[in-house]
Fold this protein.
Amino acid sequence: MVQNTGNTERLLELSVLALPEGWRWRYGDEGEMSVLTMAPHSTASFDLFIAPPKDAMPQTQTVKAVIVSEFCINDSIMVDSHKFNVDVTVSPVYGLVIDSTYPIAKAEPGSDTSFNISIINIGTAVDKFTLLLGELPQGVLGKFIRTPDGEVSAIEVPGRSVANVTLLLTMPDRLKTAEFGFWVGARSDKAGTMGMDLIVELRLADLRIKDIEFDDKNIKDGDVRKANVKIANNGDAGAKGGEVEVNGETKTFDVAAGKETVVTFDIKFHSDDRAIVAVVDPVNAVQEKREDNNDYVTEIKVQKGFELVPGFQSAWIFIAIGGVFILSTIKPLMIRKRNR
């Protein structure tokens, strides 16, 4: 829109200063001159049309234009000009962009995680896109879901529109890595193929035996005492159905991330015992940040026991019963140290 704020009639001419190669412009309808006569204190509009070539890539092009004004003052012709910019956005008939709000997701082993995937049709025509998922680590399962359709493998998107789908990934109980990347994308015959890389970071447990509490005073051979095994999880994922083994006996436990739990054992001690040996996650069933801190050993001292064992020689002794002496033989008992 142009305003003539002066007191004289003005002759205005519109021009475009420069265009990229192959671009065209015109004023108004075909063949219409780009010259406009304006009365004093009036308003007028120019219709400026800019056409990119058919093979132009999607872009926003800034076009510089100028309006030259001629008017008379005291029989003298005066000229001034006003430059301005016009932003021209080129939209193809078919085009595709893939985007995700959060390209990095966190997950625990044995759980699900998801990504929101945006299928952006930057073209002007409706198009149908096939959804693509790159190679995933062994055991990881993936599928595309859209409400209310459920699982989908392709999606139709109107021109200049966005359709969102959810990529759902199911983690196995254990992976060979704590982080993995993969590719996701879409394609159509007319728009081609586009995609992006996504990353999954695993939240993992970190189990260790913090302490074994038991009465270690005067332990004798054959004693059975309760021992409380304190297990700490210093990781950022819980451990369900974990195992802890103490002197060959195994029990299960659950412990949340950043928490502790206690598992109680009844331990029978033997004279040749020198230590209590405990191992958390003995068969590495739980994927952890560290696997080198699962063992715990505490030394103990067990008193050796004694037993009475029949001897091998007879002895004569007198037994007084009711004032009568009876001479008899018995096999004496010999004390010997038990050695297991």
User: Anything to note?
Assistant: Residues 312-321, 327-340 have pLDDT under 50 and may be disordered. The radius of gyration is 45 Å. Residues 96-202 form a domain with the Immunoglobulin-like fold (CATH 2.60.40.2310). DSSP finds no helices and 31 strands in the chain.
